[in-house]
Amino acid sequence: MRINEGGAMPGVGPIHISEIEPTLDALEKALGIDLKNNALGSVGKKEFSGDIDVALQIDTDKIPEFTKRLEKTPLILDIAKSSVIMTKVQIVGYDESKTTSKPRTGYVQVDFMPGDPDWMKTYYHSPAETESKYKGVFRNLMIASIAGVWDRQDSEETTADGRPMESERWMFSPTEGLIKVNRTPVPKKSGEGYTKQNKNTKISKGIKNAEEIAKTLGLDGAADLNSFESLLAAIKKNYPNDLVQKIIHNFKENRTVQDIGIPDELNQTESLGEKHLRRIRELTGKLR
Fold it and tell me: Does some domain include residue 114?
């Protein structure tokens, strides 16, 4: 076995949904750890998965020992060291008759991702194909866009480029969860004006439970966080229109969204029925 240093694993391809369980079963037996219950993202939710991400609860000093165990496992042919442990794994029960747009090889990349499995399953959650047209990254960017404007307090004083001198706001962090920070612009070393950078000072503990995240953001519950579509519906239901428009604007301005493509739903104008429903809610005082 050779050790690759970084990059995607060579010779791997997609895995069919019917092959995931036997492949992980074999790895679980060889490694003696739970993998199926700690699978992340869209694994098992689509007909084909490009790779398998698994949350690994392990102390940092134990990672070298775990890597050696991987090296001794016959199913694993290569290992790559990076922020995660990337491996090339033989697919158990490989059915070459099942094909997709990307070439299949009989091997799949399995990434072991050290961290808190419960939080990682929340952060890396990806909806099923029947629930959303979009990848999980759109869901996370939508949550971040909501956090950026919900319950936000900005100072009246601003920098030359329009940023508040002080902003108490929420942030959605891949490591901290939903956390409240005090954001201030970073002064230039010359003492004249400010750089484009901001400094975030934590003022609360991170919230990592999906139900608590949803409630903190003024939504109905964890189900609202399932997908981009469920989040869009939830903010239209729970937020005033001006706040909804701010969230949509910030989401559309995100570079990742622009690179992948703005969702069709955001390029559509508000229907007459939506306008009437929104107006009724405003008049009945159900909006915050």
Answer: yes
d(CA 181, CA 143): 16
Is 87 in contact with 70 (CB distance < 8 Å)?
A: yes
Model confidence pLDDT, tens digit, residues 22-64: 999 999 999 999 999 999 988 888 999 999 999 999 998 999 9
The pLDDT tens digits of the residues spanning 66-92 come to 999 999 999 999 999 888 999 999 999
Residue 202 domain-assigned (yes or no): yes
Residue of 79, 60, 66 whose CA lies nearest to 12: 79
**Which residue, among 106, 117, 10, 5, has the nearest Cα to 56 in the 3D structure?**
117
pTM of the model: 0.79
Q: Domain for residue 38, yes or no? A: yes
Residue 145 near residue 253, CB atoms below 8 Å: no
Q: Which domain does 50 fall in, by range?
A: 2-123
Rounded Cα distance, 206 and 254, in Å: 23
190-242 pLDDT, tens digit per residue, is 988 999 999 999 999 999 999 999 999 999 999 999 999 999 999 999 999 99
